[in-house]
Amino acid sequence: MEPSTPPLGDMSPDEFRRHAHRLVDWIADYLHHNDHYPVLSRVKPGDIARQLPSAAPERGEPFDRVLDDFERTIVPGLTHWNHPGFFAYFAITGSAPGVLGEFLSAALNVQAMLWRTSPAATELEEVALGWLRQLVGLPPDFEGVIYDTASIASLHALAAAREEAVPQVRREGLAGRDLPRMRVYCSEHAHSSIDKAVMMLGLGHESLRRLPSDREFRMDVAALRQAVAEDRRAGVRPIAAVATVGTTSTTSIDPVPAIAELCEREHLWLHVDAAYAGVAAMVPGYEHILAGADRAQSLVVNPHKWLFTPFDLSAFFCRRMDTIRQAFSLTPEYLRNSEAGQVRNLMDTGVQLGRRFRALKLWMILRHFGAEGLRARLGEHMRLARLFAEWVRNDPEFELLAPVPFSVVCFRAKPVGMPENDLDRYNESLLEKLNASGEVFLSHTKLNGVLTLRLAIGHIRTEERHVRRAWDLMHELA
Ligand code: PLP
Predict the structure, then answer these.
(1) Are 271 and 415 in a shared domain?
(2) CA 260/CA 290 separation, integer angstroms
(3) DSSP label of 83
(4) Domain that holds residue 57
(5) Does this model's pTM top 0.85?
(6) Handedness of CA 371, 374, 380, 386 (dihedral sign)
(7) Residue 86 lies in a domain
(8) 441-447 vs 86-87, strand pairing mode
(9) Which DSSP helix (H) or strand (E) runs through 172?
(10) How far away, in angstroms, is 193 Cα from ligand 1 center?
(11) Under a CB-based contact definition with an 8 Å cutoff, are residues 316 and 300 in contact?
(12) What's the total number of domains in the chain?
């Protein structure tokens, strides 16, 4: 007997329609009634993998069964980032228009490595980033490109800084030759992606100098000035500084105008990491947060953090995109094309060749909510954070540990009479209990050596009642 051959081709259109309808119904319910899931998954390490077969099925399975298993096996192992009680790290949102954009982009599966491999993907990226640039108030000499994450955007920024400082490195490399140590500066509160970037670029971790910050966690510019002078005297070559607008722990804002002035004088590449907070510049009264950023060479802002965009989409804006191209463009024969020179080929602006059609979801989000809708939602998150901070400030058993410039509150419980030495342990245990409740998920940081709880508001469906519930829970569990 002939061995039976599996059918070829894809799922039939009718089957696809049926499963897609089931899936869309599931997603619609999930987006609107996911409050009953515990925000932080309760599974133990290995629980999910243990329930799954150790090899792929030999015979294809009905898709209904796959979806059933998704609900039964996978969902319990999810931590629900798309939940209004998610207050950890930076709270994010996969908004409905963004989810639809992702769905469509997966179906199209276009790949904008070259303009011709999907002209609309390349051009929509330019248009959507142009809209975003205007919304946050950056001038038109900033050209935009989408990367997956801010970490990758900052890596490209520092690669460009290296390219400007020592262009021969592209050809000759860094090893086995006579080059001085290079230096990149940032504050002690800059994100760890900056450390990884200098490590990746072959500059060495020691090439990153983290400068102290002031009492409000902002970079001390006098310390930067002194460090640059000291390094020059020691024969070290300063190449770049990274200023953060919205640091990861406290969302503090480095003094960008003063840093920009110093960078101009010292011929340093200035990169502004506004991954979380940059979008707030579109809210009336917050334009000043990007003051001085127009003098930077590059800036990153993450719509996937606080602009309701499903992960991932990071917007990189650069006034010297030609330097990025100089560092990264390389066209093998099989990618040569007659439009080169007349169009943007996005493979030239980064390390990756293939790229997803991320602009589609951003365009849909910007159109669906409109600038007005986005401003209102960001403004509301900041109002809720101020409200929570007010509750903390007025409660003698709690303490605010940092200013609240945006939508993140840093605080701790401080029961009257409890010795300072016991407070870290007490707050750690409070955090564990809060997160075990399943109603909320908060994370922590350390500020001035002190364990600090962080309440980060950023989910599109977080309302005052959710924030109130987090506060009440703290009292119930404290
Ligand atoms: N920069 C800042 C200030 C951040 O807070 C973060 C992440 O929280 C990053 C960069 C890294 O972001 P991504 O996950 O997009 O690489």
Answers:
(1) no
(2) 12
(3) S
(4) 13-36+41-78
(5) yes
(6) negative
(7) no
(8) parallel
(9) helix 169-172
(10) 7
(11) yes
(12) 3
